[in-house]
Amino acid sequence: MLNVLIVDDEKYIRNELRYFLEKHEDINICGECSEGEEAMELVKELNPHIVFLDIELQDMNGLLVARKILDDVNPPYIVFATAYDDYALQGFEIDAVDYIVKPFIEERIEKTLDRLRNRIELKEVDGRKTKDKDNIKLNKLCLTKNNKLYLVDIWEIKFIQSQNNEIIVHTKRGTYGCNYTLKELEDRFKENNLIRTHKSYIVNIDFIDEIIPWFNYTYKIKLKGEETEIPVSRNYLKKFKRRLSI
Predict the structure, then answer these.
(1) What are the percentages of helix, strand and coil residues in the chain, rounded to 5?
(2) More confident site: 72 or 103
(3) How far is the CA of 119 from the CAs of 73, 138, 203, 214, in angstroms?
């Protein structure tokens, strides 16, 4: 059973979303609220698996609420539900799982739920419990290709890329899909040789061939056997230089 928290300042919107979600036997609406501050408290109290979150709340911006929720240990999945589709890019930049636009379309919500179920199922296959703070540490990652699951050793991964709202994992054996966010991967493998260099990239240090100085004191990275040049943005520059003793 997946516990869902609905956050929207319009009651009729909450009721509409509840109506669509309660059609699914594996969905339990564990709570709802209209304000950001209350939402953050309910997340701590109820431990939902998923939060459907409006962006334009009366007391604060939903993007800020999401950032604070995602800063917690083992946070819930965030799905933005809003009338403003121009927020989509910002939503995915902070690792929201999905973004649905009002007025809601039932088929679109079902697609979102399928994505969430797949994400949670893959977590369990990969040896992780969604609400267990003491997650089992594995040096393998469960990836997808042609509707099949593959366990790939971490040392085989060259780099991970976020492209068109999908996560692509480039390995020595080829490319795979992945149902984790970059934030989840960054946190999980921070003790391995995978390092975040950009909002769209994670790189395996072992495959770095060249580090090329770029404008504004940033860098570009060339990997062994890869033509793609991967940026090191200013937001990740300090950590990157410290990790590589530059």
Answers:
(1) 35, 35, 30
(2) 103
(3) 18, 17, 22, 36
Q: Which residues contact 133 (CB under 8 A, 6 or more apart)?
A: 73, 74
Per residue in 101-124, pLDDT tens?
888 999 999 989 988 887 777 665
What are the structural domains of the chain?
Answer: 2-125 (3.40.50.2300), 140-243 (2.40.50.1020)
Rounded to two decimals, the pTM is: 0.54
The tokens describing 178, both together, are 């992945």
CA 91 to chain centre: 10
CB 178 within 8 A of CB 167: yes
Q: How far apart are CA 94 and CA 184, in angstroms?
A: 11
Report how far apart, in Å, the C-alpha atoms of 198 and of each of 2, 96, 218, 237 are: 32, 17, 11, 9
Strand 77-82 vs strand 98-101: parallel, antiparallel, or unpaired? parallel
Query: At a CB cut-off of 8 Å and minimum separation 6, what does 135 contact?
Result: 74, 127, 128, 129, 188
Q: What is the gyration radius of the CA atoms in the chain, in angstroms?
A: 19
CB within 8 Å of 208: residues ≥ 6 apart: 221, 222, 223, 224
CA distance 154 to 158: 9
Token pair for 170? 């480039």
Task: Record the tokens describing residue 181, joined without a space.
Answer: 């966010």
